[in-house]
Specification:
Helices cover about 25% and strands about 25% of the residues. By secondary structure, the chain is α/β, with parallel strands linked by helices. The chain has a five-stranded mixed sheet with strand order 1-2-5-4-3. A two-stranded parallel ribbon has the order 6-7.
Amino acid sequence: MTNSELKNKIENFVEGIAFTNEEGDFLSVEIPKENLRDFMQKIRDNEEIACDYLFALTGIDFGKELGVVYHIESTKYRHMIQLTVKIENRDNAEIDTIHDIFPAAYYNEMEAHEMFGIKFKNHPNLKHLFLPEDWDKGYPMRKDYEDINMLIR
């Protein structure tokens, strides 16, 4: 299925969907965070779409907003979607978990929480993977993060 055909099939799945790029390997989509779980469920369960494999979930700092970028593929049809969800409130960045829809998201959500401060609502175990459990020095992957060691030098 081409990106254009895929776009036609998913364009009415949720409110507020925007297509940001139809060229290349991925169909790039942006949706409001409130529609994330509904969209993920639909692209996984729809027989014509059948996106059953989440192969990447990445936290991102856009500057004014935080966000999460998801890369999903259909192992049956081989088409891919790059989904971006932006979170406006940097001080209380929350988004729904999708680990129960795509189990591969489990550890990636933990990493995005630890490095960007994005809370994945209903995730059962948002603990640190790389930083000490008592870490309270901010979120190292945010653009506004200041490394104390860099300031001392």
